[in-house]
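Lab meeting, action items carried over

1. Structure of the three-component assembly. Owner: GW. Status: complete.
Input record:
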Amino acid sequence: MSTSSKIYVVAGKEIAEDDDYITYVEGVGPIPRDIYKYVKSDPFGDLSRYSVHIVIQHFLIFVTFLVLTGTGLPLYFSELSWARYLISLFGGADQARLIHKIAAFVMMAASAYHIVTIVGGTLGKILKGKFDYRRTIIPRFKDLSDLYHDLKFFWGSAPYRPKMEKFMYKQKAHYLAILWGSFVLMVAGSALLFPDTIAAFFPDAMSKLLPSGVLDEGSFPSFSQNLARLMHADEAVMALIVIAFWHWLNVHLVPGRFPLQWAFLTGKITREHQIEEHFLEYLRNLQEIPEEREYMRKLLKEKGFERSQKVTLEDIPRIL
Amino acid sequence: MGSIKTIKAACFCFVLVFIVLSVGFPAEAADKENCLMCHRYRFVGRIDENGKRHNYHVDEKSYNGSVHRNVPCRDCHTYITKIPHDPITEEVNCANICHIKPPFSQEKFSHQKIIDIYNGSVHAIKPEDPDEARKAKPYCKYCHLNEKYTRVSEERIAYEETLSRCLNCHQEKGVTQAYMHMTHRLRKKTTRSPQEIVQLCAKCHQDIELMKKLKVSEKALTAVETYNRTLHGKSVALGSQETADCVSCHASSVIHDIYKKDNPESTVYKDNLNQTCHHCHSKANSWFVKIAVHPSTKHEENPFIYIASIGLRFALYGSVFSLVGLMLFETYGRRKDGIKFLLRHGTSWRGKSKRQPK
Amino acid sequence: MLGEPKRQNHPMASYFIGLIFAALTLLVFAGVLHHLTLSHYGPQLFKSLKDKYFPEHISPIMEEAKRMEDLEIHRHFHHIVDYPQLPETERPVCFICHSDFPHTKNKKVRALLNMHTQYFVCESCHIKDQADTPIVYKWYSPYDDNPQGPFLGTSYDPETGNLVEVEDKFSKLTPFYLKGDKLQSAIQKQDMPLAQDYMKVRDKLTPEQRDGVKNKFHVNIRGKGYDCKTCHSEKGILDFKKLGFAKNRIADLVHLNVKGMLTKYEEFYLPDLLKKPVKEPESALP
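Predicted assembly:
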């Protein structure tokens, strides 16, 4: 975000001086913080959020995740009655094992694709001088204060939600968790899939150096394999539970999001949602998209918020 | 012209052998003495003094589809010398030489070769065995019922593996030739599925009381349980046909050569492990064979794994409860701010905020 | 209107896809509940409840009986072929005391006698003759008053030489009293709960009491059944032809002594049978 901009200007109003109720945007007008309750939104999304690459990656990961859990869970819970039915959906245990491996490779390919997209996109932005770490998923201290602010809002002691960037604290935490989880799953999964290759990393001679008593149960390959068995299964169950009880509910089914957010297919976010949870990103959109400025200006006029406000320069760092 | 004649003759022989092998002899040949006159009935049987049911029924159809379909009754039941016969007290001896000549052989058939191998194995009854062990140890008929042929699809037949099984009993020369010529036509098998093998072995080996009486090693006591916890065991439990079962590791292609771990002939002897694992895991090395195939379930033997599992449990409950809690709290807060959940029209900011601006 | 707070324009697809997510979530929720409450992988929170309301009765006798039966099925070299059984409520009560293999005493013939239970009800052989009322044999099925057959064991399959497989697996040859023009079943009408009760209290009764009860149960029943020749001969009491047996089958049944079988039995075994007449019909279930 270029700091030279003079469009984001704040002027406190008596009703919510501390909470920056009114954000004055030059050429648009004074935007009240709760304007998201009054904006028009297309369910399919109004404002661009994800590139087509991200949408493809999400779709690949999403499908392979379902396939992987479908083929993996019955193996972990092989003694339970439903395991047989679930595995027969994939054509039996041997077929399911093959499908599991294929899906795992597709997921790893999608992850690699994601890394290439992210690294390439970041490099491009740095070269163009447009890189701004605040718009990225990199955690910063503001996320903690946003969380605190949000908790206060939910409790009722703060009047408005915090002004957040393109990625808010929840999304950052989730992304980092997935990063860690898929790393563990991939490494442990490879150890299970290629036990011989993994063990072959250790030179033959090394095993002969150790006394045989140590090698029997507590040997390193045995330990690493046991750890891989544990980690792969436990991480997978954790991933499924978090995806089911948190990701799907939070993104699609909670009030305000129900019945569906189309962002994972269209790459676009609704105006209402962006203003509510990613207000600073919306301000950037106002800066970049003249039509959006025009829409907001007219809306403010219709709602009677066109009165211009005073500008104080000290307020600039506070809002960004 | 002579060569054509030879080819014709060879073709004829081939077809003949094929027909004989694939169709088999009719059952009448096996029941020349009309034993089925009585034994064909379903309820020929009794309950003995120990309360055990004995059913003497022999199902013609099932016998005709079995591996012994060509063997006449009295080749095995040699102690029967008259009809009607006296109550039977003897057991069938599988080492009997029967009146069947295997293909490409002049010798009469017998299971002696396998029985010799079995007699050297851990399951054989030794002279010093106490009574309990004698009773518990499986003899031929414990594991081997009269196996029925089942058809398999062609691609399931692995040439070398199958041939190695044939050679357990048949002479190498003739059978190898026959097998090489006709293997693509043999679609019948009697081998057991991994599930059947595991069930069979587990029948005794998961009976911990029995195993304690037989004084097996500490690890062997829990062998079934620990196997079931591994990927091998779980895959087999789910119906996999390709996963290693008990016999895959504990015996060679001779199947009956099961020895204790410290016997140098055993496939699981520490120097032979490499080769044994190599059957499936082509890159097996001396590190690989140290991976526990029967990983211990005891915490004190794997303290790191135990701690790791507790850590993961905390991570799971911690993340799920905090995230779901946050979601519920957020929904509570946003509902107070005026969001409404309506099934038919989706959800939006319909309500009036209950908040009082300061 | 630029402001549109009451958004209602969700396309149908939104609900459809959203429903999938909801269903998946519910599925996982059900799985987690199962894991927490009942599954032996989890903490089994409902275990005490389950034990309380669905207690598993462990009976050592039942387990031993089951083990014995399993042993035979598992270790039987000649595979045991499943044969449909009448449900217990439809069967004559005899089996409660005598089991399905009622003959146990005479070592030489018990298995052969038991074989006949597939074709006969107990009364077919063990009925007391009554001077004034003649006995007529007919096929009888608990599901059908007048079964038409074909019946099991009445004919051979010309191709294989085996007995022809039939659909009617429950019909048995049964004696009827001919009273005037009417046929009256000779099957003992007995009270099943009474028989079950007797098995429970049998050990508490004195021998005299036991005999009393047994005599009451076995009206018109005699301990020793008919001899082989009563039926297996040219002038046997069974009219095979009328009962629907094929010609070659009749020949085999009548001339069981093709191989001197029947004569041998008579010579060697039956005298022994006559020496020790079976006094107690209650012989199974030692």
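2. GW to write a short summary for the group page. Key points so far: The two ends of chain A are 9 Å apart (CA to CA). Residues 1-19, 212-216, 315-320 of chain A have pLDDT under 50 and may be disordered.
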